[in-house]
Amino acid sequence: GRENVGSAEWAARLSAAHGVPVDVAPLSSIGGPEVWIESLKAPSPVRENERMSLDISVSSSTDTSATLTLLMDGTPITTQTVQLVRGANTFVQNLPPAVKGFHTYSAQVIPPAGADTRHENNRYSAFSMVLGKPRLLLVEGHAGEAGPLKSALSASIDSDVIAADAVPADVRSLAGYDGIVLVNVPASSLPAKSMERLQVAVRDLGKGLIVVGGDESYAAGGYFRTPLEAMLPVDLNLPSKLDIPSVGMALVIDRSGSMEEGHAANGVGVKKIELAKEAAYQAVAQLSAKDYVGVITFDSQANWVIELQPLGDPSQFKGRIGSITSGGGTNIYSGLAPAVDALASSKAKSRHIVLLTDGQSEGGDYDGLLKKMATNNITISTVAIGTDADTCFLQSLAAKGKGRYYYTEDGNALPQIFAHESHLAARSYIIEHPFAPQRTSPSPILDGLGGLPSLQGYVGTSPKPAGQVVLVSDAGDPVLAQWQYGLGRVVAWTSDAKGQWAKDWVGWQDFPRFWAQAVRWTTGAEAGNALQPRISVESGAAHVTVDATAPDGSYLNNLSASAAVVSPSLVTSTVQLRQSEAGRYEGEFPAQEEGAYLLRVQAWGQGVGNMSQTLGVVVPYSPEYRGGGTDNGLMSRLASLSGGRVLSLASTQAPFEHNLSAVASTADLWPLLLLIAILLLPFDIGVRRVAVSKGDLARAWGELRRKVGVMPGPVPATPHGSSPDMAALFSAKERVRERAEPTANPQEATTPTPPSWARDLQPTLRAGPPAPAAPPVSEAQTPPVTENATDSLATRLRRAREQRQ
């Protein structure tokens, strides 16, 4: 009787309306003493620096004590011992002011041993949203790069600065910010899954995103084939005038026997050759589809794994790179020489070699090789792994080859090193020369700004069809672009925000205003919000209610409203909100999955623009885990409403005995009868339109017998070879001729006896009234019977037969 979904009383009333009683047999609850949290209520929204309190309801089946702990965003804030009495217990906990953003509060009760049976119902969570000034998350690729932006925004916008590897991979943490700014962040430095979470926050929760350029951003930062590329309003491919394979990169990897040795990675022994293969694939995946890529391995001699060619889809090379094995000596020159030859003959604008080895090299003409590299603008970077590597030689080779030297004993650093080399090799995407950006379309980001300072460089991109390009370079390439991405807004700034390319902008008096307007445009949907959304969860469904009011307090009607819902498993769905009364819009969605749901409510209409609001709700443990005994009151009401009985399984009254009264019911037959009539209609029409006689049936039966092989018996011979009908006709003719001859008795001649054929015709001849008696005539007056008279009689006979048929 512990109902938690639906309405059994409604079903009982429906059953009673149909005359069906419902008998109930209450079962006793199974289990021991129980302590559970009934509810946790947190006010939302509240203002920043405003004090708030939590209402906690704890129920118990016995009198006992327990430890009650409160957590905020996963961190314990209070712990106290409380006394519980049987039934409901309410506690109020005051909390210190919280900073702006989303906050998750959890209450956890821990009863003493023996006082609780289920632990699933000992924890309950709630959401609260703290409003305040816009709050940004500034992510910098290198320490100090976000400093100028933070200083420019500090007057009107709060911001937190973190390193790229500290970006939270939790959507709830990102939802606490109004927007995120990436400042020259390479893709390889972001934690795994953080880009996917960032995409959900922007697309489904309406958060703003600004991507600030630099020498390790966009194409030069390895954004190809990442969620960042999908979110940007610009295309990472080079503009048409530079649309050629501009990067040629050759990876020269040592596969000697020493690379088979194990190396500690994340506390697990991993072979160095395996780390090298993973690093090689990471480097390849950072490049554009039209860049040149080659992979060559060496031991005592060289072997091309991937000959230098346009990259295309990097996944096609994953199997080849994975097939690299180790064995043999170490001859670095044998691997470098073919790599230099291949790059020298390629069409790539930027040509680079990355050499990875862990050992000592045999001899070779390195001076001649370096001269050929200098002649063909080929650079080289070297990576030494382990203490056995010839570090002096590798360091000298990198210096003479105008590259970089890396030494690592930690194999985990190899993917980052190779990815970094890919970014630096892609410097052909970087365009450096002074230019004055030109406006191409109006934008709120540039409102009130006069002449724009010059820039010294940018990362080459091309516009996407749906993106709005606001500023372009002297070559027409995008410098500032914006667009709507899902529910959020994204701004792409392909120059930097520091003293390298934007040194004139950093010192510009409107530099703070420019960036503040860019931030407000991306987060503008939150400003001046006229929506007051609320959400409640009951019986496995969440009910969303949104009140929309104008600044003067009047209701906003006839709006188009919806809510984007992100479930605890990060599945996004959309719920349409329909107007239920003046200024109110409502909708529902399933909420049976335990955890936190994030919602982005959006409404738009004529004259009011686009309004949105973000909120959240927590679905606690399943209601099946709530405590309490059998609800005998509900069970009794079900029986009473339907005319049933309350049965006891322990009594002698059998629940399943056949003592129920019969219930009469009716069923409409007209649908069945109508169907039968429709099916019989064609037969009725056929019978009326087609006349079938017995003769037709006989002929059809005979024809059928002949077709199936049952032939009729022999036909008797007839005169003149005629048919039986004709034989009968000739026989009648002969009888007429015989009777027409004179007889000895005149009386018999005057009144002859009717022949058999005449008696056959008697019914037909009697059709008319009887003819008057003819006067007697003499023999002389009797006309002779001629052949013509016989023929006339045969004709009459045929007609009579036809009439009978």
Number of DSSP helical runs? 20
Instruction: Return the average pLDDT rounded to an integer.
Output: 80
Report the biggest beta sheet as strand number plus sense, adding barrel if it closes.
Answer: 8 strands, mixed
Strands, count: 35
Strand residue content: 25-35%
Poorly predicted ranges (pLDDT <50, ≥5 residues)? 743-751, 761-769, 776-790
Query: Structural class of the secondary structure composition?
Result: alpha/beta
Radius of gyration, in Å, reads: 50 Å
Distance between the termini: 83 Å
Percent of residues in helices: 25-40%
The neighbouring-strand order within the major sheet is 10-9-11-12-28-27-26-23
Cα shape: extended
Description of the structure:
This protein starts with 7 loop residues before the first helix and ends with a helix. The model is unreliable at 743-751, 761-769 and 776-790 (pLDDT under 50). Helix content is 26%, strand content 29%. It has 805 residues and is an alpha/beta fold. Strand 20, helix 10 and strand 21 form a beta-alpha-beta unit. The strands form eight sheets. An eight-stranded mixed β-sheet has the order 10-9-11-12-28-27-26-23.
List keywords for this structure.
single chain, alpha/beta, 20 helices
Summarize this entry quickly.
This protein is α/β, with parallel strands linked by helices. It is built from 20 helices and 35 strands.
Outline the fold blueprint.
Blueprint: H1 8-17, E1 35-41, E2 46-47, E3 52-60, E4 64-72, E5 75-84, E6 87-95, E7 101-110, E8 123-131, E9 135-140, H2 147-153, E10 158-163, H3 171-175, E11 179-183, H4 194-203, E12 208-212, H5 227-231, E13 234-235, E14 247-254, E15 262-265, E16 268-271, H6 272-285, E17 292-298, E18 302-310, H7 318-322, H8 332-344, E19 350-357, H9 366-375, E20 378-385, H10 391-400, E21 405-408, H11 414-425, E22 430-435, E23 438-439, E24 455-459, E25 462-463, E26 468-472, E27 478-485, E28 488-493, H12 503-506, H13 511-522, E29 531-538, E30 541-548, E31 560-566, E32 572-581, E33 584-590, E34 595-605, E35 609-619, H14 632-642, H15 670-689, H16 694-707, H17 724-740, H18 746-750, H19 756-765, H20 787-804
Helix pairs in contact: 1-14, 2-13, 6-11, 8-9, 17-20
